[in-house]
Design brief:
The protein has 15 helices and seven strands. It is α/β, with parallel strands linked by helices. The longest helix is centred in the N-terminal third of the chain and has 47 residues.
Length: about 500
């Protein structure tokens, strides 16, 4: 080939190489974009697949468009029909031998013969009917005249105001005050609706400002009782802890309501999920087992060393997520079955009054649990690299928790005083969600703190079998109900 032909061929090859290089770069860009799109689709599919059965989402979100419904929970011994169960004792209104009032009714009018039935001979009672009724309430204005007297010795004595009567010339009585607090705190009635309800029921018309101010007054009245509740919680063998987000204060801000509770006590703290709030919380002072949802701050060494019970409801939901992610895997179902078997065995032992699960049953389920965890770890491999930059496969971190914290997962199987789930904590934070659904955002952080100071007090009183209205009324009178000393172990 001539020199000119070689130069022409070289130029053609260089142009073709440039075109191919550009095409390869374009293909690489497309492949990268496709990978990003696939990853985005995978994230969206996983997000839409979340429900209350495989994640911590509330059940209220299961009705959202496109959300799959949670799977039915496995039933033991057949499905229980709704309503009253066979063999359960019935409850009816009991006949009272000492009615508060008796009203006699006689036939009225005239007989067919024309005689007035008012003059007829009484043959006695032929039928009796009792009815439980409440009188129509009407607020009464009671004037308290305080007299001054002079003794024979010349000393002057003045009558003191009755308890609950303030120095103001006109005020609302203690029962009306207790009703305001009860409606706002126990039933999440907004202030203006509370005013309307009080007016409709009693005829009294308190101002919205007075009703709202009752929250601060009542919170101050129960302050000492809440200090005692907190102290008794630190001495409890088991304490359930939970936290839930609530909208309080300025727009686009979020607070968290933290609760520490048992079957007898409830104590709230408003804050956030930072470690600073957890330091102000009760965790550092607790001496018993802490039941929680595995949130990292519960395990912070800055809060001291504690025994833990990880909530099995959360673990079972996470395992359900793994079962859906790895449809052919056996280990998620095996671990779920083992956990449910241990929970069932613990419940049966507790109901029978025994102090431990049958050793053979416990060993069988724990052995099944451990084998399931080992199989899962062998199938879901850890990706090497720093935790901050590497996202592990779904289920890997959960399996490591089940392996490394087995004592904290299965503590309920060895100590029947420890519940397997944090249901008590979730029940005690549920009123906050009800309040939020009714009122939306609560404007004042301080008033919200007052609200939950009262809520913890009346919840504890109710758990002890005390009447909530009486507990509120006594607190406003300066003699707040106090939880008794715990029974000796």
């Amino acid at each position: 080939m001539s020199r000119e032909e070689l130069i022409a061929l070289t130029r053609a090859l260089l142009a073709e190489n440039a075109r191919l290089t550009e095409r390869v770069a374009m293909l690489e860009r497309l492949e990268k974009e496709n990978a990003e799109l696939r990853e985005r689709v995978a994230r969206l599919e996983r997000l839409i697949s979340r429900n209350s059965g495989n994640s911590g989402m509330p059940s209220s979100g299961d009705d959202q468009l496109g959300k799959p419904q949670p799977k039915d929970k496995p039933a033991r011994g057949g499905r229980r029909r709704p309503g009253k169960q066979p063999g359960a004792p019935g409850t009816t209104l009991a006949w009272s031998d000492t009615p508060d009032d008796t009203v006699d009714h006689f036939p009225a009018g005239t007989c067919e013969c024309g005689a007035d039935l008012a003059e007829a001979t009484d043959l006695g009672v032929t039928a009796r009917h009792q009815q439980v009724e409440v009188p129509l309430m009407t607020a009464a204005t009671i004037q308290h005249n305080l007299h001054t007297v002079t003794c024979g010795c010349g000393k002057v004595h003045a009558a003191s105001r009755p308890q609950g009567v303030p120095a103001a010339p006109v005020s609302l009585g203690i029962n009306l005050q207790a009703w305001c607090v009860y409606l706002m705190v126990a039933h999440a009635i907004p202030v203006h609706r509370c005013v309307e309800l009080i007016a409709s029921l009693t005829g009294a018309e308190p101002s919205p400002g007075f009703v709202h101010g009752m929250l601060a007054r009542a919170a101050t009245a129960v302050e000492q009782a809440n200090l005692r509740i907190r102290t008794l919680l630190t001495l409890a063998h088991v304490v359930c802890c939970d936290e839930t987000p609530i909208r309080v204060g300025a727009k686009k801000t979020k607070k968290y309501l933290l609760v520490a509770c048992t079957q007898l006590y409830t104590w709230y703290l408003l804050g956030d999920r930072t470690l600073d709030t957890f330091k102000k919380f009760i965790i550092a002072d607790l001496t018993g087992v802490i039941v929680h949802d595995r949130y990292q701050n519960y395990d912070s060494p800055e809060l001291g060393e504690h025994q833990h019970q990880l909530c099995c409801s959360h673990l079972l939901r996470d395992l359900e997520d793994c079962a859906e992610t790895y449809p052919g895997a056996v280990w998620p179902v095996q671990i779920q079955t083992a956990l449910r078997g241990l929970i069932h065995a613990a419940n049966l032992a507790r109901r029978a009054g025994r102090d431990q699960v049958a050793p053979g049953t416990k060993a069988m389920w724990i052995n099944s649990f451990r084998h399931g965890v080992r199989i899962g770890l062998s199938e879901v491999r850890r990706i090497p690299g720093p935790a901050k930059t590497i996202t592990q496969p779904i289920g890997r971190v959960l399996l490591e928790v089940l392996r490394d914290r087995e004592d904290d997962v299965l503590r309920f199987a060895h100590d029947l005083q420890v519940p397997p789930t944090n249901n008590q904590g979730e029940r005690d934070v549920r009123p906050a969600k009800t309040q939020q659904k009714i009122s939306g955002r609560l404007r004042s952080v301080r008033t919200t703190e007052h609200r939950y100071a009262i809520r913890g007090y009346i919840s504890t009183a109710a758990k002890h079998g005390s009447d909530v209205m009486t507990a509120i009324r006594d607190a406003l009178l300066g003699r707040a109900w106090m939880p008794p000393d715990p029974a000796p172990a």
